[in-house]
Amino acid sequence: MHNPQDSKSNDEDLIIYHPHALNPLRRGMEWGMIAIGWFIWAVLCRPLLLALLWFLGFEIFYEHMIRLGGIKALAGFSFIYVGTVFVMYLFIRGWNFYNAKKFKNKNRRKNVRDVSVRDLENYFKFTPGVIQQAQGWKNVAVSFYEKSQILLKESRTAGSNFYKGYFKSG
């Protein structure tokens, strides 16, 4: 059984989540690339895409509604369109009412217990201390070479040791 007082906070327990392990240059490069990507999307791609869609939409609307006289047919079918939208509205409201009655006062969320370092070592059959050592690495390579076999290795170190563990598959 996991005792929360035996371990650190959940953020420190995770193997993969270690933003403080990134050096400032890499962190700055990542934020810079993200900012450049959003700038390109917001300033260049999105306005061009929207302008193209507006142009095509206007062309199609003019062709079908004005030149071919589709505006008269639209007026004739307006009752069917409004009726269809109203039926969809009733269906969605009915489904919401059904769910509200069926699940009223029922808490269907289940809490998942915290996982300790010892739990991970027992589940993956690692030798004691391997998970705690891996938490200190900057980069962890996780490999699945055979069915039900997991290998942990510090990926930046050339001749580093690797640790083998096993798990139940399928």
Across the major sheet, the strand order is 1-2-3
How does the helix and strand content classify structurally? mainly alpha
- Terminal-residue CA separation: 25 Å
Q: Helix amount, in percent?
A: 55-70%
Written overview of the protein:
By secondary structure, the protein is mostly helical. It contains five helices and three strands.
SSE layout and pairings?
Blueprint: H1 10-13, H2 24-67, H3 70-102, H4 117-123, H5 130-135, E1 140-143, E2 149-154, E3 162-166
Antiparallel strand pairs: 1-2, 2-3
Write a concise synopsis of the structure shown.
This protein has 170 residues and is mainly alpha-helical.
Comma- or semicolon-separated keywords:
2 domains, 55% helix, single chain, 5 helices
